[in-house]
Design goal:
The chain has helices at about 10-20, 35-45, 60-65, 75-80, 105-110, 110-115, 120-125, 130-140, 145-150, 165-175, 200-205, 210-225, 230-240, 245-255, 300-305, 365-385, 400-410, and strands at about 5-10, 45-50, 85-90, 95-100, 145, 180-185, 190-195, 230, 260-265, 270-275, 285-290, 325-330, 335-345, 350-360, 390, 415. The protein is built from 17 helices and 16 strands. It is of the alpha+beta class.
Length: about 425
């Protein structure tokens, strides 16, 4: 077949990306329900999970960024109550994924010995009888947490030489290999394990496992739909796919007409366009973006699209941080115009702002004043969604003075400290 190759400007690529990620979809008319959640899932494909809870668990934020205030129970029900629409597995890191993707990720389960972390592989190789014993505990007692198995097991078993952490490692090996899955989360974030046949829909488990090449093409196609326009490494990163098989899948999708080769001005590598992608004429977004949002996963792509260099500083020593501990970019219209370090002080009922920074050269009509005004309004909505009573004035950062003034003038609830 003959493929057409066109050139896109960075502005066009940026608008395509924002549209593909759902930032140009109309806001919900009325209460947010399962239909809105499904719309976002169709857009982004999956939600990354993370244990950091300084503001809110990361998998809850993408829905807020695209839908506004919504009941978090909506996502919990979709993931952990029948009829389940989402399940936990390794997608882009630990993720919540549509149950329909289970067959396309079985290659990863089958290749656990290649891809699982070293500690898991060593335990499975050196103590297979122990791993089987842990699996039997799940069969007999599930749903069950690692702690429940650890506390009820003898401290040492003949020839196994295991310790408390071995139970969790064995369960994670079984999780990676698909022999167990997450039935629930308890006490905040503790994973509860059970057998897939007692958790996932039977009709999903009964789907025949597709050949690996079919699975890779499907995952790349989903990534292309979610990204709109992307390079092969961008597409590969979405589901953390092996390079050679990703490149082969991209070539095959181009041959099938399911990807269109394009050139984006200023990009050194070839790009690929989802055939169903559109170029919005304008983008009128106003939202904070989680560091673990799919819009931000591939940092190099974020820099190419937005001229925005982002590095998460959670693991950076405090005295070496530039912007803060848990910093969220602020998307206004089609540009990332600010960075805000946020903390939910749940005990005091306060949304704290350790720092607020305006992005140098931020391209937005209305300049600093509008950025501060729009951010203040959005922070009020975020605080209300989180059940916090007040928003504290920012403590530092070059946007702090303007944002403090805008918060003081913001008449919306919650009130400002």
């Amino acid at each position: 077949m003959t493929t057409r190759r066109e050139t896109l400007s960075v502005a066009q690529a940026r608008r395509i990306a924002l549209g593909a990620q759902g930032f140009t979809d109309p806001p919900p008319n009325g209460a947010v329900d399962i239909r809105h959640l499904r719309r976002v899932v169709r857009r982004v494909g999956l939600f990354q999970m993370d244990s950091v809870n300084v503001l809110v668990r990361s998998h809850y934020l993408p829905l807020f960024s695209r839908l506004g205030r919504y009941p978090v129970e909506l996502l919990d029900r979709a993931a952990y109550r029948p009829p389940r629409e989402l399940f936990e597995y390794w997608g882009h890191e630990a993720s919540l994924l549509p149950v329909g993707l289970h067959p396309y990720l079985r290659w990863r389960m089958a290749e656990v010995e290649k891809h699982a972390w070293g500690g898991m592989r060593r335990l499975a190789q050196e103590k297979p009888e122990f791993v089987e014993w842990v699996l039997q505990q799940v069969r007999d007692r599930g749903p069950v947490t690692a702690g429940e198995i650890e506390h009820d097991a003898p401290r040492r078993m003949d020839n196994w030489g295991w310790n408390w952490s071995d139970v969790k490692t064995a369960l994670e090996w079984l999780f990676w290999s698909g022999q167990v899955t997450a039935a629930a989360r308890r006490n905040g974030f503790t994973r509860v394990y059970d057998l897939p046949e007692r958790v996932l829909p039977r009709e999903v488990l009964d789907i025949p496992t597709p050949p690996n090449d079919v699975a890779f093409r499907e995952l790349i196609a989903i990534a292309a739909r979610a990204l709109g326009v992307a390079t092969e490494p961008d597409l590969r990163d979405y589901f953390r796919l092996p390079g050679a098989r990703s490149r082969q899948a991209v070539r095959e999708l181009v041959e099938e007409g399911r990807l269109i080769p394009v050139q984006v001005e200023g990009w050194q590598q070839p790009a690929y366009l989802d055939p169903n992608a559109t170029i919005p004429r304008t983008v009128r977004a106003r939202t904070l973006i989680s560091p673990f949002d799919s819009l931000m996963w591939e940092r190099a792509r974020t820099e190419r699209l937005f001229g925005f260099r982002y590095r998460i500083e959670i693991y950076t020593p405090a005295h070496k941080r530039v912007y803060g501990y848990y910093v969220l970019p602020f998307l206004l219209d089609e540009h990332l115009v600010a960075r805000v370090d946020l903390k939910a002080d749940r005990k005091a009922g306060v949304l704290r702002i350790p720092a607020a920074w305006e992005e140098p050269g931020a391209k937005v009509e209305g300049g600093t004043e509008r950025i501060a005004r729009e951010l203040a309004a959005h922070l009020g909505q975020l605080a209300e969604w989180l059940g916090l009573d007040t928003v504290a004035a920012p403590e530092t950062g070059d946007l702090a003075p303007a944002l403090t003034g805008a918060l003081a003038m913001n008449g919306a609830m919650p009130r400002v400290l």
